[in-house]
Write a structure and sequence with these properties.
Layout: H1 23-27, H2 40-47, E1 84-88, H3 96-104, E2 109-116, E3 123-131, H4 134-144, E4 148-149, E5 152-153, E6 155-158
Length: 169
């Protein structure tokens, strides 16, 4: 036995006892809550002079127009002069067969083509549908324009050009 130790040993933790940094945790509700510590970005914003601002200042009007006075832009309405239709605001999950089935309920569909990016084959959100006749195309625009399809309201109108040139891959 060591000459300097007594029969009973005292336990001493290596950490030095109670932690001094987390005293708030042990006090409970004795003291009122302190204000929350500012984040780094709040301190940076305070340094540059806009600490109390939570909202952006309203944007300056351009050319004398009020920024909120402009209504939401409606898609351009193209008159149906050919059997080729433009289908916009299309869900990215929509396939050509989905469009074929949807437009087949209105009339005979000759062709349905979803436009997609070349490099990843993801839909661009619009398509072209070729109906058999111009009358069927007009009826399709009347019935399907602004109709909900796969969670989105479709924009159906006449295609701008009836000359369709598929791009080379």
């Amino acid at each position: 036995m060591n000459s300097y130790s007594s029969g009973t040993r005292q336990r001493r933790s290596r950490g030095g006892g109670r932690r001094r940094g987390n005293q708030e945790r042990f006090r409970g509700s004795q003291e009122p809550e302190k204000t929350q510590k500012k984040t780094f970005w709040q301190r940076v914003a305070e340094f540059f002079g806009n600490a109390g601002e939570k909202k952006k200042a309203p944007a300056q009007a351009r050319n004398g127009a009020q920024p909120s006075s402009r209504p939401a832009r409606k898609p351009e309405r193209v008159e149906v002069t050919s059997p080729r239709l433009y289908v916009g605001n299309l869900s990215f999950d929509a396939t050509e067969s989905d469009l074929f089935e949807l437009f087949n309920g209105v009339g005979h569909v000759h062709n349905a083509e979803v436009v997609s990016y070349r490099h990843n084959q993801r839909s661009k959100g619009f398509a072209f549908v070729q109906m058999q006749t111009v009358e069927e195309a007009k009826r399709a625009v009347e019935e399907l324009h602004d109709k909900e399809f796969l969670g989105r309201r479709l924009v159906v109108s006449g295609a701008k050009s009836d000359q369709h040139q598929p791009r080379e891959a």
